[in-house]
Amino acid sequence: MPKAGIVTVVGKPNAGKSTLLNRLVGEKLSIVSPKPQSTRDRIVGIRTEGETQLILLDTPGLLNPRYPLQQAMRGAALAALYDADVILYLIDPAEGPPGDFLEVARLAERPRAPIVLAINKVDRLNSDAVDALRVAHPEAELISAATGAGVEGLLARIDALLPDSPFLYPDDEISTQTTRFFVSELIRETAFEQLEDEIPYSVACEIEEFRESQSPVYIRAVLHVERESQKRILIGARGQQIRAIGSAARQKAEALIGAPVYLDLRVKVLPNWRRSANALRRLGYQLPEDRSS
Ligand code: GDP
Ligand code: MG
Fold first, then answer.
1. In angstroms, what is the span from residue 38 Cα to ligand 1's centroid?
2. Which domain holds residue 253?
3. Distance 202 CA to ligand 2 centre (A)
4. First and final CA of the chain: distance in angstroms?
5. 286 Cβ inside 6 Å of ligand 1
6. What is the pLDDT of residues 39-94, one digit of tens each?
7. 188 in the same domain as 144
8. How many domains does the chain fold into?
9. What CATH number is attached to the domain comprising 243?
10. Which ligand is nearest to the CA of 10?
11. Same domain, yes or no, for 86 and 116?
12. Residues 203, 147 within the same domain
């Protein structure tokens, strides 16, 4: 009987979630998924190996919801937690001992899924420190997302907790919807990589057109920023910045899709989108008040 289920990865920024997800799915996929319309849109990766399929979700913004964007992200993170079959709680031991999961995530109620604690980055520790961790946290899996050490053991532990179930997705399917989402995420990620500080938080990416049936695959995307000054920075002198972002993002999109891509990337000002409920909905975020329906 095959096994399949939802594995939701939780951890503070820099714990190594993205590194682990990339290792598990073996492809460069999305890091943060702010489009919580449905479970499907929150998927950051699918791992099908032998008789087991893991649907991997992430938990954007398990942080103080101060304005609408953060609220939307926290809502998505909570939904991913309560949908999970297994919760993977990832920590970096350099940040101190793992806090209690319910407290760290500020949850009123324990999710039904079992929580597997994984202590990451053990490649940075000497063997005495690793032994000490084993003694202090016998329940934890000690892993290195970077080198792969311990990851097989972690997978075996997760597999044992998954329900018997037919695969939830065809073996190698990544749907168009999901591809679109991944592409918007990797464009945004590329903008994050190439810009400094302040600005990236104000960048949202919208895919306006995605034609997969032609070669090269045609993608028209818009990076929305909040202010003219940010738009100038994103575009750069003589357009060099936006060209650099576009070229790096296109290469990542080609690796993801496995086909040549033509990326038409523009920058627009959408004033105060982070604080505007309408703009957030348009960009695919689900706000807490949408959830009751
Ligand atoms: P996220 O914010 O939780 O998604 O964390 P990332 O996956 O972006 O990782 C944060 C930083 O930790 C990056 O610089 C990674 O290269 C690094 N990192 C992640 N996993 C490991 C690991 O197992 N060992 C080491 N040495 N570094 C790691
Ligand atoms: Mg990350």
1. 28
2. 179-292
3. 17
4. 36
5. no
6. 444 566 778 888 998 888 877 556 445 556 556 667 767 877 888 999 999 999 99
7. no
8. 2
9. 3.30.300.20
10. 1
11. yes
12. no
- pLDDT tens sequence across 131-185: 999 999 999 999 999 999 999 999 999 999 999 998 877 655 444 456 777 788 7
Q: What is the pTM of this model?
A: 0.65
Copy the structure tokens of residue 90.
Answer: 């990832």
15 Cα to the center of ligand 1, angstroms:
6
Same domain for 216 and 286: yes
Domain boundary among 161, 189, 220: 161
Question: Is any ligand 1 atom within 6 A of the Cβ of residue 14?
Answer: yes
* CA 1 to ligand 1 center in whole angstroms: 35
Same domain, 33 and 113: yes
Considering the domain architecture, whether residues 52 and 130 belong to the same structural domain is answered as yes
Q: Which atom of ligand 1 is nearest to the CA of 22?
A: 7
Closest ligand 1 atom to the C-alpha of 13?
2
pLDDT digits (tens, 9 = 90+) for 224-282: 988 899 899 999 999 999 999 999 999 988 877 778 999 999 999 988 777 777 776 66
Same domain, 233 and 133: no
* Ligand 1 atom 10: residue of nearest CA: 14
